[in-house]
TrEMBL record:
Transmembrane segments: none annotated. It comes from Aliivibrio finisterrensis. Keywords: Ligase. This is Phenylacetate--CoA ligase family protein. Gene3D superfamilies: N-terminal domain of ligase-like.
Length: 446
């Protein structure tokens, strides 16, 4: 909606109205009786080992049965009628891409919601889910929000990469209001140094009680406070972060400058694992959300292999996420919840580019979306106003039109005055430890 011309050309009060109505529709679709029933069910698991055990057994059995009975890939892969999870093959993104619809259940009904994974390497994968899946996801998110002290009606600030203010707009305000959710929504794309104090003041003036933010956005504000040796003057219950990795140092800085605890959430669109941090700062694997196996890959790291419980349309079993965690020596947390504790999630590299006003742009995941034939991308910036997009492509699909879309998407995020060009390459360069960086910025920011 935010890239729609009508929205972009509307005056601010109309934009507030449009986004409020959109939010209300989403809220009605996602919430309601089913979500509140599941929420109260899963809240019973938190402190009760036996309730947790039986809930998890039921979910896992349901997933494995659904897969072997109704999903072509698993019907063919599984010779044994006995469904022990260890009998299932470990699968990767490439398996899903190669097998396409063979991962979809043949007994689905109702609306299908498609979404693309973001992926740190800019190689999106389309995952499909049904509305039940969307509602169930929301119940787990709602439980974590309650850990963070959220009560219905609380005033929230939202800084999560929605382009609620067009990039071409250079004058504030860079925020809008979602009336039915009691929410101020702030743009993650206008956070140039001169604007940051305005963001802080807007949240304070609104009476914000909880902030939901991308780590890169809230860290930018925490660093602004830190540089000026200020503290957030409002009274916050908590800050909830997700969708990007958050380092321990950044978490501490945010907590210090905003005067509250950060509740961090790790999840992925494949929905095969979720990890939430609690009021004691421990990261808990939410074992009633999915089945997680941690495979030792050396150097103290373990890869997350996950099986989703909440998507009967596309049940993924033993899916390699490529994300790593470090185990904890602790077997229990002072919060008393029965979920396993891990030490930390290995950070994905926090890459960024500099936009046309010198603002740091961290949110690059959306750029490859909607471009056909793109296998991998990496953005390289050697000069302030110029971006090279290195792209590994399928030459049969990636034509001139797709190239134009890729360039347009890049300008959409970084500014129309940027010079953007595409170079087709055989492969993307990797870092020393084998990771692919999303972006390499060789311009020193002021
Ligand atoms: Zn805890």
């Amino acid at each position: 909606m935010y890239t729609n011309r009508i929205y972009q050309k509307s005056p601010v009060p109309i934009q507030n109205g449009l986004l409020s109505c959109r939010a209300l529709i989403r809220k009605i679709l996602r919430e309601g009786k089913n979500q509140s029933t599941l929420l109260s069910d899963i809240q019973k698991n938190e402190f009760d080992v036996s309730a947790m055990g039986s809930f998890v057994d039921t979910q896992l059995t349901h997933t494995l049965t659904q897969a072997t009975k109704h999903v072509p890939f698993y019907k063919h892969a599984m010779v044994s009628p006995v469904h022990k999870i260890a009998d299932f093959p470990i699968i990767s993104k490439a398996d899903i891409r190669e097998n396409g619809d063979n991962f979809l259940a043949d007994n689905h009904r109702g609306v299908i919601v498609s979404g693309a994974t973001s992926g740190t390497t800019g190689t999106p994968l389309v995952i499909k889910q049904n509305m039940t899946s969307v509602v169930r996801e929301q119940a787990f998110v709602a439980r974590h929000l309650e850990w963070a002290g959220f009560k219905s009606g609380d005033k929230r600030a939202w800084i999560r990469g929605d382009m609620i203010v067009p990039l071409s707009q250079k004058e504030g305000p860079f925020w809008r209001y979602s009336w039915f959710e009691n929410m101020i929504m702030l743009s993650s794309f206008h956070m140039s140094p001169n604007n940051l104090q305005g963001y802080i003041d807007a949240m304070v003036n609104y009476g914000t009680q909880i902030i939901q933010a991308y780590p890169s956005s809230i860290v930018t504000l925490a660093k602004h406070l830190d540089i000026h040796d200020q503290y957030y003057s409002g009274n916050l219950k908590s800050i909830v972060t997700s969708s990007e990795s958050l380092s321990q140092e950044d978490k501490q800085l945010i907590e210090k400058r905003f005067g509250c605890i950060v509740f961090d959430w790790y999840g992925l669109f494949e929905r095969v694992a979720a990890i939430g941090s609690c009021e004691h700062g421990r990261y808990h694997i939410l074992s009633d959300y999915s089945h997680v196996e941690l495979i030792d890959i050396g150097d103290g790291r373990h890869e997350i292999i996950g099986t989703n419980f909440n998507n009967s349309l596309q049940p993924l079993i033993r899916y390699r996420t490529g994300d790593h965690v470090y185990l904890s020596n602790e077997t229990a947390c002072p919060c008393g919840r029965v979920f396993p504790v891990i030490d930390r999630i290995e950070g994905r590299i926090g890459d960024y580019l500099l936009g046309e006003d010198g603002q740091k742009v961290h949110i690059l995941n959306h750029i490859p979306k909607g471009v056909t034939g793109l296998i991998a991308t990496q953005f390289i910036q050697n000069e302030p106003k110029s971006i090279e997009v290195q792209a590994v492509v399928n030459r049969d699909l990636f034509d001139e039109q797709q190239e134009h879309i890729l360039i347009a998407n890049t300008k959409e995020r970084l500014g129309q005055s940027m010079d953007v060009f595409v170079t087709i390459v055989e492969q993307i360069q990797k870092t020393k430890n084998g990771k692919t960086r999303q972006a390499i910025c060789r311009v020193k920011d002021a």
